[in-house]
Structures are given as structure tokens and as C-alpha cells.
Amino acid sequence: MNTEERYAEFPPPPSLAPWVKVVWTYACPEPSDTVQRIAPDGCPELILDVGSPYEEEGPNGVWRLQPPALFAGQMTRPIAIRPVGPVELVAVRFHPDGARDWLGASLSTATDQRLTMVERLRGVVAPVGDPEAQARAMTDRLEALRVEQGWSLDPTVRAEVEAMMADDPAPDRSPSEQRALQRRFLDRVGVSPRMLRSVMRFRRVFDHALEPSDESSGWLEAGLGAGYFDQPQMARDFRRFLGCTATEWAREQVELARAIASQTYKPAPPHLA
To answer: Fewest CB within 10 angstroms: 42, 77, 97, 181, which?
Structure first.
């Protein structure tokens, strides 16, 4: 039995690429009992546990087991999870505006929520120990739904999301135009344009920090590269989106939390056949 930790990413087939950013798999047969902090990354996700689901800490401090299949909407605050057994999962990371038709409801209804998807993923067979087959099982289900439901995108929202990902400045808009865009964002993305920009800037810190370390100088350099003006500004977002300082996170985080942070914006391998 393979006891090594494993993380892998697979791009979706071209037919799903407008909606799905990447499919990723993770396994850790012998996880530690460390509490892991997961930060917002601007992308809703559909997750199927092949192994044991994680426990998640609720706002009252009580730990509850997550459902074995869940949809995680946009996050505006961190979550804390911990493993309870051998971990193996496959997840679909949607584009920020890509999950509206999958969910079948405004994305604002899922913001900061983990919704059970056990019934909707019933019958999806994700073979243990086979990351590529796990990824294909998920994309096969989504492709069937895309064809059946006729998924679409809002071109205005997509153009704004792409501008944010390119770190282009927001154009000047009248108050009425801004309100209209915000309504469309709440429906298609689940958060306001301003919030999504903040999340994307924060996530770019980890792209610039090639290997998160305990050194504050390294984090400061990464923050400046991500677009922060100074260390206090970045420190406020670490508290906001992770609930700790950068050096505290680097010392504490292992396994899934670190894998996600270091891989989210990395280039993906070739398309699944």
C-alpha cells in the first residue's frame, strides 16, 4: 500500500474548460491530526471524498464531519479542518463564475457554505489510488450535465473576472453600472467584484512565495509581488483570510492546506484524453 502523500492536477476536457479551471486529486494515507487552515481562493469547488471526510470547525467551536460529497461556495473567511482517517479525494475547481449552472441557483446562496452533494454525485465511481480515473469520473458526470442542461456564461461577468485574473485595474463605472455589475456578480460568482479582487490578490502571495517559509522577509517580497503596498496591508489580509500571520501559517500548515496554497495558480499538465 502506498503511504506517501500525493497531489495531482488535471485540466478539464476542452468542452468543460469555460466552466472548470482544473480537476485535482489528493491522498494522504497516514495524515497527522494537525488542524489545517484553508483560505479563500476565489473558486467554488465540488469535492468527492474517496477516503474519510474531514471534520470542519463550526463558528461555535464544535467539530462536525463534512459530507462525503460537497459543494464549497465562494469563501470570504478561512475554514479550519482536520482529518479523521486516511484521506483521498477528487475535486473540481470551477472558474470564479463557472459554477452557476452546476448549482442551479444563485452562487450567493452558497457563499461561505459547504452544501451536501451526496445525491447529485451518487453513482460517480472514483477508483481508489487512480488519480486520472478519479478526475475523469468527475468530468464525465459534469460533461453529461453540461449537455443536458445547456450551461452558459454571462459574458460581462466573465470579462470582468478575466481582467481581475490579469490584475488589470477596474475601469471607471457610474454608480448604476457598478450596482448592476454587483448584482450579476452575486448571482454568477457569489461575492462582489471588490471581494473577488481582494481574494485574488491574497492568493497571488502564495504564487510569488515559491516555498512558504518562516522568514518574514520572504513573505514581504511575495506580498509586494502580489500587489500589496506594504507589510501591514498584507498582514491584515492574512488575518482576514487565514486568521493568523504568515509566519504562523508557514510553521503550522501541512498536507492539504500547504498543497492547495502552493499549487492553486501553478501551470497544469496536458488535457485529459
So the answer is: 77
Residue 230 pLDDT exceeds 60: yes
| Model confidence pLDDT, tens digit, residues 169-198 | 888 899 999 999 999 999 999 999 999 999
Residue 268 confidence (pLDDT) above 60: no
Question: Residue 65: is its pLDDT beyond 80?
Answer: yes
SS3 (DSSP) at 65: strand
Query: For residue 271, what pLDDT is reported?
Result: 41
Q: Given the DSSP bridges, would you call strands 20-28 and 45-49 parallel, antiparallel or unpaired? A: unpaired
Strand residue runs (E) in the chain: 6-10, 20-28, 36-38, 45-49, 55-57, 63-65, 69-72, 79-82, 87-94, 114-116
Q: How far apart are CA 255 and CA 264, in angstroms?
A: 14
SS3 46: strand
> Which cell is 90 given?
477528487
Q: Distance (Å, rounded) from C-alpha 149 to C-alpha 167?
A: 32
User: Which has the closest alpha carbon to 37: 264, 245, 263, 220?
Assistant: 245
Quickly list DSSP for 191-258: S-HHHHHHHHHHHHHHHH-SS--S-HHHHHHHHHHHT-SSHHHHHHHHHHHHSS-HHHHHHH--HHHH
Contacts of 196 (CB under 8 A, 6+ apart): 42, 74, 96, 161, 164, 185, 189
- pTM, two decimals, is 0.88
- Exposure of 89 in the CB half-sphere (CA atoms within 13 A): 23
Domains in the chain and their CATH numbers?
Answer: 1-273 (2.60.120.10)
